[in-house]
Write a structure and sequence with these properties.
This protein is mainly alpha-helical. The protein contains 4 helices and no strands. The structure holds zinc ion.
Length: 113
C-alpha cells in the first residue's frame, strides 16, 4: 500500500490543479477562437488523431475530475484499486487518478497473459 498524500500536500496539489486548469482553459479558449497553439503546450499522449481542441477538452476534464475528488476527499487514491498515489507523481502530474499498476493494465490489457 502506498500512503495517499497528506491534507497539506493535497492543499498544495489543489493549487497546482487550479493554476493548470486556468492555463488549459486559456489554451482552449484560444483554440476555439481559431488561434494556433503550439502542440507542446498541449497534454502529450492522448488518442492518435485527436485534434488540439479535443486534447485540451480531455485535459480540462481530467483537471475538473481531480478537483471534484479533492472536494469529496477521494483525491490522491487510485480510482481503480483505491491504493494511495505517490506524492512525487502527483507533484509532477497532479491530475493522475490511477496508480501505475492499474494504468499499465488499462493500456496493455494483453500483457497480463
Ligand atoms: Zn490502482
Amino acid at each position: 500500500m502506498t500512503e495517499p498524500p497528506t491534507a497539506e500536500e493535497i492543499h498544495k496539489l489543489k493549487r497546482q490543479l487550479l493554476k493548470k486548469g486556468a492555463e488549459v482553459n486559456e489554451i482552449l479558449t484560444r483554440l476555439l477562437a481559431g488561434e494556433q497553439v503550439s502542440p507542446e503546450r498541449l497534454l502529450g499522449g492522448g488518442k492518435k488523431g485527436a485534434t488540439p481542441i479535443e486534447k485540451a477538452r480531455r485535459w480540462m476534464a481530467l483537471i475538473d475530475a481531480s478537483l471534484k475528488r479533492v472536494a469529496d476527499g477521494s483525491y490522491g487514491r487510485c480510482i481503480t484499486c483505491g491504493d494511495g498515489l505517490p506524492v512525487l507523481h502527483l507533484q509532477q502530474i497532479p491530475w493522475i487518478d490511477t496508480c501505475q499498476a492499474c494504468a499499465a493494465k488499462a493500456e496493455n490489457p494483453e500483457e497480463e497473459k
